[in-house]
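Usage

Read records sequentially. Each one opens with the input sequence:
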Amino acid sequence: EKAAEGSGDHGAAPFLQNAWGQLHLYTGEFGEAEAHLRRALAASTSVAATVTIRLNLAEALLAQERSIEAAEEARQAEREALVGGLVPRLPEVYRILGRIAAKEGNPDAFTLFERALEIIGERSLPILEEARTLQAYAQAEAQRGEEDTARQLHEQAGEKYRALGLNHMRHQWTDVHGPHPTESGGRPPADEGEDHA
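and closes with the structure output:
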């Protein structure tokens, strides 16, 4: 922020607000995260940035148990990604839509994760995308009570992360691969029952 202010770069606002939103997501301050992400969205002038911000906003809304609004933001991000030719962003869209569907008890949530995995394979996207998708898929299957499938998917995700040198899975609400905030003295996330470390 200081560097942007010093240079007079007003184009940095959406990126800075998005970063603040992600930081608040990580520390479990979901209302604060939403406020920053809405400011980022209002300031965004790039389709790629808008898609990213919208998906982070969907995370903040989902964290606040606002599934319908989260789904609306994710679907809007999907439309923008398709129109903008940003197909590599679609796995992230389908991951969050799959998580929302699973949270709502929709038995067809798995189709969204399968579609994300298809796109990853078709586009030869980075292994990290596959790892994150398998992790989210495992959590969705566990919510449905499919423990064996969840365990297999979780193990596959762990193998992919380890192949990348990552010892921790994705944090529940942000793309962070490290100790849980409670391990470093930070504020705990709202749902400590989902420790993905």
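Summary fields computed downstream for this record:
- The mean pLDDT is 88.
- DSSP finds nine helices and no strands in the chain.
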